[in-house]
Amino acid sequence: MAELSDVPNDRLASLTSGVDMWHFAELGEVGLRGIKVSDGPAGARGERWFGGSSACVPCGTALGATWSREVVAEVAGVLAAETRRKGADVLLAPTVNLHRHPLAGRNFECMSEDPELTAQLATAHITALQQAGVSACIKHFVANDQETDRHQISSEVGEGVLRELYLRPFEAAVRDAGTWSVMSAYNRLGGEFCSQHHWLLTEVLRDEWGFDGVVVSDWWGTNDTAALEGGLDVEMPGPTRYLGPTVAAGIEDGSIPAPALQRAADAVLLMAERVGALGGETPGIADETSHDDAAERAVLRRAAVESIVLARNDGGLLPLTDADSIAVVGPNAASTAIMGGGSAAFVPHRVTDVLSSLSARVDDGVTVTHERGTPPPDSLPALDRKVCSVDGQQRFTVEHFGTPEPDGEPVLVEPSLTSRLLWMGAPGPGVPEQGSSVRLLTTLTPTVSGEHTFGLVTGATGWLTLDGEVVLDNRDDRQPGTAFFGLGSEEIRTTVQLEAGTPVSVEAVTSPVDGVPVGGMAIGHLEPVADEPLASAVQAAAAADVAVVVVGGNDQWETEGADRAGFDLPSGQPELVEAVCAANDRTVVVVNCGAPVDLSCAAQAAAVLLCWYPGQEAGEAIADVLLGESDPGGRLPTTWGRQLSDWESDSNFPGGDGVVRYEEGLRVGYRDFDSAGTEPAFCFGHGMSTTTFQWSDAAIDAGSRTASVRVTNTGPRRGTEVVQCYVTDPGTNRPPQRLAGFAKVHLSPGEDAVVEIPIGEPSLRQWDESRGEWVVPTGLREVRLSASSRDHRHRLELAVD
Predict the structure, then answer these.
(1) Burial level of 488, CB count in 10 A (0-12/13-18/19+)?
(2) If 301 and its partner were Cys, which of 146, 617, 641, 773 is the partner (CB 3.0–4.6 Å)?
């Protein structure tokens, strides 16, 4: 490591603050170039939200649903390669907060409601990233389990609950995977901001767990210079508000102890050494590139298949092997959602949808019809580049002006692959952060004649023209909305008669929000909707051999910055599902969202697939499962309840008066449902195969605390089985069981495999509040080898001495 003793304090202090949105400070005296970071969990975006594209991987909940360390590691390998293509050293991922409540806005980013499932998958994710030389930055530390009032809310959690549930994935990330970076959370914990929480960042993270990496703040999540002493190393983004020069001044006047600065500088240099940013090992940060790799596509498609949960399959409807006609209906059929929204969003290399993939791959002679089935949504999908062009290419042109109106020559002209623009800081290189304007241009060639709906969301104000005519304008009556982290305008809409094949020029203009370093613009577009969309969908479903209804959310419905408003599917979708199921008793309901919703509307569906936000290969992966080319490999990483009151946490979500009380204690997810005797719609760990399995020869080795069972594929198809191991949890008022481990196998007909699952100490220990330490109660524990939290196949005994 480079020598820091001769570096002046003001230069050392510069390392405690980012210099811009995505870079740490450089320190030429010791050969340190500026470390570059990138969002995030769904893909390495790079510095900007539009322009270049990136590989879009399955969302966090989908990765949790794979129950596969191997799959998660493969996906992390894709993310590592993409991070390097973006010239970055640190990936701000994975997100390992737990699913405490089904309406939490960022549940889709998180892996599971269970700390052990999350811990083991996160360990695989981090290990694969860092083996490729990319630092993980695991987040958000800790109890950052809602979006409502997230910058100020105080999470009130008892220490035992905190340690057994919410800290467990972070502890595994440090102790088992050796994560090189941790991101502090926005919220308070017990009244103290997590970004300056000495007990959390110093006593637990560093002193107890042995963390030697960098603690970085969430963006604009630093609240005081005291954060450095609390344990924060780097404030992001720059320019700094609390660290940097303020730290240097504090060292000089003695108000800040010098060892705190030394610790932070040492941590940054150690990270730099690990990622190759020190001593000239790499000459500098490479330009960002986009590369759509065929092998990586295959990894992401397989991962999506491994995440899809077959929740119901009455009469063996799936796979669809004997249908001569298929009605594909629902708003997500042609606009399948591949990712959630917020800082994790970006432009994907490609988007595949269920309708297109299924239509292209059914056997000759099979007819596929399509109806949307619902009225225009609450938030219109973005104008798709596939129906737009600039100079013969499917894209948009973005012009940046250094003036509030788009006058004269633009400062910067660049291509974009999306009509949804978002920026933090300056809208583009060389463009003023304030007092500028942005114009988006393209030519739309409609594929369908009729009334097209257009929408516009702006940063400050703006307008939209079609063939030079202003059709949308909010300059005189801008209303605030929820887009762009709550800084955008409310969407305004209009309908315009367009003819298929007749090109239309599109132009939209906006300017940044005054005094705020975040801006954006989004053009929404929806092709003509039937006069009676529900009736048209029902008619199509009734006439087909099989109906496939694809419903769910999108990146505006589930997003950072806002918790979901309710437990129902979006407007019009429950009625569509119920009506189609009534019209055709061979209906498959495909649910395309990141967290549980009310599925009582699908009570009569013959088959239900839960598909999450599966990434860019969504359409291909879902078609693989529907057509039987792949077995659905997913199991539920979160309990799917029937109503919000099924969750005890609902009585304390999202809190009030600046406080959210975790009064449910350890009763989170299946532990809650088990304790209360509540029957879920689909239980934790549930998922079906299209073949059958037999479990035999269950045993436990008491010495190594390893459970084993032989699994045999007794059916006609290659399939996937997940063996889950639960242990009983003795003690007053504790939930009856908890997950100890799991193993996933893929077997051909007649093939068998012996599955072994070690039961680690974290699955046996309890936090003793009175003694302030971990204890492992002695005595007999029941060990359950199970297909889900409710389907126990073998029960064994383990003596814990």
Answers:
(1) buried
(2) 617
- Nearest alpha-carbon partner for 196 in 169, 225, 171: 225
Task: Give the pLDDT confidence of 121-133 residue by residue, as tens digits.
Answer: 999 999 999 999 9
728 touches 781 (CB < 8 A):
yes
Tell me whether residue 218 is one of the annotated catalytic residues: yes
Model pLDDT, residue 504: 97
Please give the angle made by the CA atoms of 96, 100 and 106, to the nearest 5 degrees.
55
- Interhelix angle 573-583/533-543, rounded to 10 degrees, is 30
Neighbours of 679 (CB within 10 A): 11
Query: Which two structure tokens, joined as six digits, stand for 687?
Result: 């998922």
Q: Which helix (H) or strand (E) holds 720?
A: strand 719-728
Q: Which residue bears the tokens 């806005």?
A: 105
What are the pLDDT digits (tens) for 217-258?
999 999 999 999 999 999 999 999 999 999 999 999 999 999
Rounded to the nearest 10°, the torsion over CA 379, 385, 386, 390 is 150
Angle at 514 between CA 508 and CA 518, to 5 degrees: 70
User: Residue with structure tokens 């959210």?
Assistant: 660
pLDDT of residue 518: 81
C-beta of residue 431 within 8 angstroms of C-beta of residue 402: yes
Beta bridge partners of 24: 18
* CA nearest neighbour of 764 among 772, 775, 748, 754: 775
Q: How far apart are CA 600 and CA 597, in angstroms?
A: 9
Rg (alpha carbons) of the chain, rounded to whole number? 26
Query: Across residues 500-525, what is the average pLDDT?
Result: 91
Q: Which of 218, 624, 631, 646 is catalytic?
A: 218
Residue 655 pLDDT more than 80? yes
pLDDT at 282: 47
Structure-token pair, residue 269: 């240099």
Exposed (0-12), middle (13-18) or buried (19+): which is 249, by Cβ within 10 Å? middle
- SS3 call for 476: coil
Dig out the tokens for 178 from the structure.
């050796």
570 pLDDT above the threshold of 70: yes
Task: List, in sequence order, the alpha helices (H) in 167-284.
Answer: 168-175, 198, 227-230, 245-253, 258-275
Task: Write the DSSP symbol of residue 249.
Answer: H
Joined tokens for residue 161: 């609950």
Phi and psi at residue 332, to the nearest 5°: -95, 5
pLDDT of residue 280: 60
Q: How far is CA 630 from the centre of its chain?
A: 24
Rounded CA separation 432/411 (Å): 9
User: What confidence score (pLDDT) does residue 285 get?
Assistant: 60
pTM here?
A: 0.96
User: Rounded mean pLDDT of the chain?
Assistant: 95
Output the six-digit token pair for 206.
Answer: 């560093």
How far apart are alpha carbons 226 and 224 in whole angstroms? 5
* 164 token code pair: 């057994």
The encoded tokens of residue 366 equal 């099979």
Grouping H, G, I as helix, E, B as strand and the rest as coil, residue 37 is strand
Question: Distances in Å between the alpha carbon of 493 and those of 145, 377, 452, 455, 468?
Answer: 34, 12, 10, 4, 17
Task: Say what percent of the chain tops pLDDT 90.
Answer: 90
> Cα(44)–Cα(387) distance, rounded to whole angstroms?
26
Cβ atoms within 10 A of the Cβ of 70, count?
12
CA 24 – CA 28 distance, rounded (Å): 13
Spatial separation of the C-alpha atoms in residues 453 and 382, rounded to whole Å: 11
